[in-house]
Amino acid sequence: MLGRRSRPQTKLLVTLAVAPLIVLALLGTVKRDLFEVRYAAGVVPVAIVLIARAVTGVLRSPRAVAIAGTALVLIMRSAWPTSS
Fold first, then answer.
1. 3 state SS of 4
2. Could you tell me the end-to-end alpha-carbon distance of the chain, in angstroms, rounded to an integer?
3. 1 has pLDDT over 50
4. Which of 37, 38, 47, 56 is 20 to 30 A away from residue 62, measured at CA?
5. Continuous H helices in the chain
6. Measuring CA to CA, which residue among 83, 84, 48 is closest to residue 69?
7. What is the spatial distance between Cα 13 and Cα 2, in angstroms, rounded to a whole number?
């Protein structure tokens, strides 16, 4: 959906991912303990879409995209907390 070129949709996603973190970091410098990871959790889905966009935008061959996508899924899966 986002294509290979820089488009307004991609710029909007970058803004949605970066702006809240910058605002929270600036507010955290004014009031200590204001910036917590849980407040930035909404950025994670947008970041995943941006990573997918970067992979499909940089790589041209379908095989390379499949390999990179599989590698990213495995990396994200290894970071996923396990329930014991």
1. coil
2. 38
3. no
4. 47
5. 8-30, 43-58, 62-79
6. 48
7. 10
Could you identify the residue written with the tokens 């996923």? Answer: 80
pLDDT in tens, 6-60: 677 778 878 888 888 888 878 878 887 766 777 777 777 778 888 888 887 788 8
Structure tokens at 7: 């488009």
CA distances from residue 78 to 35, 40, 65 in whole angstroms, order as listed: 26, 21, 20
The two tokens of residue 14 are 């970058």
Backbone angles phi, psi at 81, to 5 degrees: -70, 140
**Confidence label for 63 from pLDDT (cuts 50, 70 and 90):** very high
Q: How many CB atoms lie within 10 A of CB 53?
A: 19
Sign of CA dihedral 30, 31, 37, 43: negative
